[in-house]
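Recall the central idea of this unit: under ordinary conditions, the amino acid sequence of a chain determines the structure it adopts. In this exercise we apply that idea directly, starting from the sequence alone.
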Amino acid sequence: MEAVVPEKYVGRSIQEIGFREHYEILVLTILKKTERDSLIGKSKIVTTVLHGIPKPDTVLQQGEIIVIYGDNRNIKEFLKR
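Accordingly, the structure predicted from this sequence is:
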């Protein structure tokens, strides 16, 4: 499942949040939207960059999208808190 990083977790590491220990879910990867100038005109192209498998010390940033895996009840609990 993909979810935007909840505000309360921005600036905290994956290990500090304790996805596995507290919620029994795994962070598979992190997606981030970036903007680039196009070759034609001034329009911007928004792309999604894949960060690969994140390390425990990876700090989550505002606007990032985490791809998480686990039981639906645990994911809902994580997103609700």
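The chain has a mean pLDDT of 88.
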